[in-house]
Design goal:
The chain has 263 residues and is an alpha+beta fold. The protein contains five helices and ten strands; from the N terminus they run βββαβααββββββαα. This is PH domain-containing protein.
Amino acid sequence: MADVPVPALLYGDPRPGRWCAVQVGARLRLPRGPVESLDDVPVDVVTGEHMPVSDEPAVDPAALPAVDRQAAPGEVRAHRTHPMIAWAWTLAAVPVLLATVGRFVASLLAPLDTAEAAGIAVPLTAVGLYIGWRRWLRPYLCWNAGGLVDVTPLRVVRISWSARSRVEQAEGGGVAVFDDEAETFVAAVPRTKFRLVPAAPGERTGAELANALRYAREQAVRVAGAVSPPAVEPPRPPVGLLLAGWIVLAPLAVIALNWVASD
C-alpha cells in the first residue's frame, strides 16, 4: 500500500542550537535536545514532494563538458555509440550468423551447390545487417531538464524527472536511470588513450554521462516543470546504406559459406 502524506506542523525556529517540536497528524513529537545540524532537502516544485537525500555525488558544473555545462534547460542533448564503432559491429553481425546458423544449416544440407549456398547466405546477410542496425545503430539517448528518452533495440523508454528519479553509474561504464514508473540502462563505451577512433560529438564515458543526467535533473528543480521531455520518435532503418552493405556482403557470404561447407 502506498504511503499517504500526513500534514505536519513545526513549532520553533529550525536552526542549530534552537529547540523545535513537530506535530504529525494528532501526535506531538517533543525534542530531546536542541537542533544540532540541518540537511537541505530540495522540494520538487512539480509534485510538491521532498527530493530524497541520496548518496549520489554532487555534480560540479565546471567538470562537465561544455556541451552539457552551457546547455539551456530546454536544449536537448544526446548520447550514442560512436558511428564508426556501431557500423563495425553491425557489419560483424553477418559473419557471426554465417559461422553459426549458416554453418549449421549447411551441414544438414551438405554437399551444397552455389544456388543452395546463395539461398542460405543471401537472406542471412540481410538478417545480420538488420540485427546489427537494431542492436548498435538504432539505440540512442536524449534528454533535457524535462526528462529523458532512451531508444533501445526493442523499445522506447520515456522518463520525466521527478523527486524519485535516480541516476547510478554501473560497472563497465554503463549508466542506469530509475524512476517509479520506468527504468533503463544506457551503455557507454569507455574511452582510453589506446583507442584509435577519436571521440565523436555526443559520445561520453559512463562518468560523463551520469554527471550530465544528474545535472539535467538538478535543472528540472529550478525550471519548475516548465520544460517537457524531448519529443523523439524511433529512427527508421537507413534502407539505402543497409542495401548497399547487403549488395557488397551477400556475394562474399555465398563464397564463404561454399568454402565452409566444402570442408
